[in-house]
Amino acid sequence: MRNLFIVISLLVMSSCTTKVESSNNTPPNIIIVFTDDQGYQDLSSFGSPNINTPHLDQMAKEGLKLTNFYAAQAVCSASRAALLTGCYPNRIGIAGALFPHHNIGINTQETTLAEMLKAQGYKTAIFGKWHLGHHPEFLPNNHGFDEFKGIPYSNDMWPVDYEGNQVPADHRLAKAYPQLPFFNNFEVVKEIRTLEDQGQLTTELTEAAVNFIEQNKENPFFLYVPHPMPHTPIAVSDKFKGKSEQGLYGDVIMEIDWSVGQIMKKLKEHQLHQNTLFIFTSDNGPWLSFGNHAGSALPLREGKGTAWEGGQREPCVVYYPKGIKGGRTIETPMMAIDILPTIAEITGATLPKNKIDGKSAWDIWTGKTDQSQHQAFFFYYKKNELHGVRYQDWKLYFPHTYRTLNGRAVGQDGYQAKYEMNTVENIELYDLKHDISETNDVASQHPEVVEKIKVLADEMRSKLGDKLYNIEGTGNRPVGRIN
Prior knowledge:
CATH topology of the largest domain: Alkaline Phosphatase, subunit A
Shape: globular
CATH superfamily of the largest domain: Alkaline Phosphatase, subunit A
Structural class: alpha/beta
Mean pLDDT: 94
CATH class of the largest domain: Alpha Beta
Radius of gyration: 22 Å
Largest sheet: 11 strands, mixed
Low-confidence stretches: 1-17
Number of helices: 12
Strand content: 15-25%
Distance between the termini: 64 Å
C-alpha cells in the first residue's frame, strides 16, 4: 500500500509540471518573430539563391525547418488574429486588413497568447506591427501585453507617395490616412513620415527586444516581434544598404536576419537560449505586384491575397534546444493556429475558454509522430469565402475568383503593377507531394478524394459559414466594436 501511495504521488506531481519540466523548474521563454509579406523562398535555407540569412539558417540547422507551415489567411490582420488566438480569423470576426478608418478590432472576450502566458506569470511584450485595431480598447496593452512599441497597422497606411514624399492635403492618400503613428504603450511618441524613418524600424524594434530580454532575464517572458518589413514601402538602415545581391528587398531580409541574430546573441549572453522556444515565420506570402520590392514564393504558385500555396505557405523555423532534437526537416502540414495550443502544452498553460481551431504540434516537433491532429486545413479569404482545403497531400480549390499578374511584367522600385482577376470555374485538385507548383489539376482522376474533401468542407461551412454558398456558420463570434 505504501508503494502504491508513492507511485500515485509521483504521477500527481508529474501532471502538474510543464511538458518539458526541468530539474530547476524553470518554464521556457517564448519568442515569436513574425515578418510581413515574406515569401516562402526568401531565406537561403529555404532556397533563396541571392539572399544571405546566416542567423536563421543556423537556427534551422540546430532546430526544425517546417516546410509545410501555413499562415491562417493570406492577409495581414486576419493572419495575426489567428496566430494570437489559435482560431481561424473568420471565427472571431476578423477579415482582411484593418484600416485607420475602421472602428473594429480584436474582441476583448478573446484570449490571446499573451493573456494565456501572462496568467502563467510571464512578462509579455510586442515590438512591431499590431494590426488588430488601433483604438485604445484594441491595443496590445489591453490584450495581455505588458509593453508595446510599434505601429498600429501596416506601414503603407500613410500620406506618402511611392517616392517617399508627403502628399498635399487634397491628395487621396492624405484623405485616407493620417500620419503613421509610432506607439509606446498607449501613447503616440512620434510619427513615421519618411522612408528614412521606415528604414530605422527594424533596428529600433530589435533594440527594444534586446532590452526587454535584458530586463526580464530572471523571469519567464513572451516576446513577440512582428516586424513591419518587408511589407512595402521597404526601407533599410545604412548598415545593410547595398549588402544583398537581390537589391533593396534582399537588404531588408538581411537586416531582419541580423535582428534574429541580435536577439539570439542576447539569449546566449545570459545562457537563456537552451530554454527558449524561438519561432520565426511570416504572416502571408509576397506582394508580387511590387516586383523587385517583393519577395519570392517559388516554387509555389501565386502570392499574397490568394489561397494558392504561394499566398499562405511560409518559411518557418523552430528552435528549442532543451525540448526538441534539432537538425530536422518536418513536412507534416501545420498552421499558425497551432502555435497557441502547442505553447500551452509546452508551458502547462490553460487553453482559452472559447473554442479554438488549432491543435498542438508538440508530438510532431518532438518526433513522436508525423501525423497532424487536423483532418484538414481550411483556406478562407475575402469576406468569409472558403477557397481551398488541404487534406493530407491534396489541395482542393472551390470555384472562386483570385488576383494574379498572369505572367505580366510587374512593378518596379516601389511602384505597383495592376492585378487581373482569374476565375477557378470548377473544382480543382492538386497533388502537392508531386506537384508543389500546382500546375496539374487531377480532380477527374481522383473523384474519391474530391468527395472526401467536399464532406470536410461542408462540415466546416456549417461551423464557420461560406459566403460563396450563402451559408451562415453556427460557430462565428463577433469582432470587437467601438460605439
